[in-house]
Write a structure and sequence with these properties.
38% of the residues lie in helices and 18% in strands. It has 22 helices and 23 strands. The strands form four sheets. Strands 6-5-4-1-3-2-16-7 form an eight-stranded mixed beta sheet, sandwiched between helices. Strands 11-8-12-13-15-14-20 form a seven-stranded mixed beta sheet, sandwiched between helices. The protein has a six-stranded mixed beta sheet with strand order 17-19-18-21-22-23, with helices on both faces. Strand 21 (596-600), helix 21 and strand 22 (621-624) form a beta-alpha-beta unit.
Amino acid sequence: MKRDDFSWMIGGAQGSGVDSSAIIFAKAAATGGLCVFGNREYYSNIKGEHSYFRVRVSKDLIRSHVDTVDMLATFEEETIFRHALEVRSEGAIIYDPDQDTKRLDQVPTIEAQVRDALNAEFIKNGLSPDVKGILELARRRGVHIYPIPYDDLLKTTGSKFGETSLSALQRMLNVMAVAASFALVSYDEELVKEAVKKQFSKKPKAAEMNAEAVGQAYKFIGEKYAGSFAHKLSPVKAEGVRLFVRGNSMVAMAKELAGCRFQTYYPITPASDESEYLEAHAEMDMDGSPTQENPQVAEVAAMKTRGSITVVQSEDEIAAVTMAIGGGLAGVRSATSTSGPGFSLMAEGMGYAGMNEVPVVVTLYSRGGPSTGLPTRHEQGDLRFALHAGHGEFPRLVLASGDLEEAFYDTVRAFNYSEKYQTVVIHLVDKALANSDATLPMLDVNKVKIDRGLFVREITDAVDGQFERFKHTPNGISPRPPVGTKGGVYWHTGDEHDELGHISEDPTNRDYMMEKRMGKIDLADKEIPLEDRVNFFGPENADITVVSWGSTKGAILDAMDWLKKDGISVNFLQVRLVNPFPTEYVTELLSKAKKIVGVEMNFSGQLIGIVRERTCIPVEQLVVKYNGRPMSSEEIYDALKMIHEGKAPKKLVLKRGA
């Protein structure tokens, strides 16, 4: 497999600027017209433990990360120990030569398993268990090693600004590592400085000092290592305007555009980032005319082109979901955002929304479980739970996005479905997607249309001052006014009820109300277009048919491109709307498949089990991953190639990732 791209990694202790340095690298590449995909990995503690960030860059579209590192940028010893052996032959490692004598046993945050494996390598190769030893091991594998005297370069930078404190200057270590990386691949220095200045735009002096640090790094590399590294990165002319955005932020922006005006949350990883983004951007411009198709509807006129969203941090997830339900009852487009443990607490509240036919959107950021599990790691383990959470039976739509662009438009769809069918919509966005950064073409907001269903602002058909909120209708959807609407009184209760909302345990009424509510799933099944429910990629007839969902999409598509060059044809069925399940289409498609392969980031293959339940078609070949690290395109490529060659077990478990 030959890759036509560049994979860069930086690492360090959490809180040392790893995230910001990777964003600078990505923005500098994106500003130069290059396509970017970033993947962020970090521990669940606040500071101190190891984190790292991969950034993959190409002149062509890329949709995933890869395992192989072309250049590793480091400024402390743990990153060298953990990742030096991931760098490919002819790749590069940038490091501080002052770290040479740091020993493996002096790094307390490295797990015992990692330490034991490295010590075995040192013994096997007759090397000392220190930074010098691990770099020698990398050198023997064909990796280029570039010592960078950071302190000397920082002192030179500081002297130009009257800053002599080395501890203060070392805050620029990460930026200098970024600059040295770009200098080695001969990338435009001014684009790097521009990205640095944007990153520190609110701190003018810091921006200038960091830009100077970039210049010093370029000067050093030019004098010491000019032309020594074969790989080069050059700006390209990009077509049209591009966005550079993170998954959580994409969902947050879509919520505002969709007309969501009330969001609740209790802090939990990785969902909190979305609500924090909304808090930071609570006020918004609202251009356009006040029409039903305009996302802001009549708000444009009422608010004079300015609008806002109310974001409430509640005392727990039970309060979060019930507050959001309250917003729905009041007629406001409302949502809550959480992850697995918090979603567990929301089950009873969602049942109340189901019983009372209240529209509410729950954005569920799937992460590693059970219990607290892996709070900052990846897994697709909540699909079955999303389908069945809550006691008894009530309708809910379950929508799973596969990339950032889908997450944007699916967020809007979630609100439309919720109000049109007056029910809970669970929008699944797994952690791998939430913490990915990517360049995208500018999104078309004209595609965003608002459908509020049978939402009414006045009551005209009350009888004796009472309104039949749960009135019998041909399709089971009843007119929905906000609570407190003048002209009629109705009731909400957690008990079974009649058309007015009065508690009723009459068996005939129970039959009708259950059929009314649950019939919404059949109605949605008939009305929602197939193109909003599934995606199909690749040739109609292929050697392998992959079935998957969620963030594995990008890695599968990238792997398919490489496999095509090898003469292996693969097509891909991506299920997006899991409930109601597109049974007829999936059955027809899979009944023609030569070999079906399920690809999921969970232990049991949850979607594949659902496919078998709904279609009676067995999927005998499974590719799964559950070690908390996202699937890379390289390992999916290797897995599908093994399957094509008949060398894979029926359940192939992927294990890559540090």
